[in-house]
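Researcher: Here's the sequence for the chain we discussed earlier.
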Amino acid sequence: MILKKLTSIWGRSVKRIIKSQQSKNLKLVKSMLAIPAGKAKRRVTKLLPKPVTAKASEKAHDVSTTAPGKWLKSTYTSPLIDGVRTCSRMSYWLYLPDRETRTPLPMVVMLHGCAQSATQFAQGTRMNLLAEQQGFAVLYPQQSATPDPSRCWRWYKRTVQQGGGEVRSIVAIIENTIQKHEIDPSRIYVAGLSAGAAMAHIVALNHPHLIAAVGLHSGTVFGAADSRMEAYSVMQNGAGDALKTAIRHATSKFELFQIMPAILIHGQQDGIVRPINLLHLTRQFRELNRLSGSKDAPLLVKEGRKPGGPRTGNAYSTSEYFIGNKPILKICEIQQLDHAWSGGDASVRFHEGKGPDAGKMMWDFFAKHRREAGTSASAV
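Model: Thanks. This is the structure I predict for it:
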């Protein structure tokens, strides 16, 4: 009876989406949901995004034609924990810029979205080109197709939100990369798109002494889902009652959680992860970073607007929150953007060619922050 009821609810939800969203959005939504057993599964299977094979993902990005640095592929195998591996194998790629200096590099960890591979994300965001220009390394962990054929990070699972599952593997890959290469451990940043943004948020909250700042593009609010069905509701409706309590619960494991600088980017036309998530994420990060202001310590907020045009791309507005002269939170709303990375390679799915350049915007924000020993983060 319960399965039939869930199937009925799921079916009605999908019908509403079919009427209100474009077919490309529908495919991504369905890839992020559990497909009920039986006839419903057979009816929608042909609409799901095709799983990304390892062979196809490696062909998607030829770094030799785009950036002159090193493009290194590796595989991480997680250790047994209580006789079980949380994520048996995880492939990842590392971009190291071509340089003569031996100064340790900052590193940006990039987490792809659903129905994407790590290499497609590298090509679509053009992050390696930016890394070459600005002098930082880029790490691209790739979700295995075993837990999800569309390579969706399982951000909606409570165990993952608490730091288990793929989070352990991602953090282990970061730590291994720091040990093997000349990486500055005080300047590690994590960013992602869609499900990757949700996972980036989870990594940052569970490891504030490792991550100096976080960037979320088209991401969902934290901690409001504990199943695929609830994930769909969050994507469409935001956090609900879990808006503040989820953040408080996540940070309660630390004696002192100082700050987690964040940049949030979202398209106002996004029908997959609706813009209400940006509003709720802003509230969550204001709660997390205690950006309330007072008479003794007034909160400085800077607002900005950029008109659209042939050269500048889509119109957008920004809001920046400061503590003293420290930029702690930046929000960017892009008027005509749907569910896609802004200012990327439009030939790659879920990337918009028009600006603003989300990658550059994130790096400009990240470059102002570093993690000091024993603290969660501090402004440079």
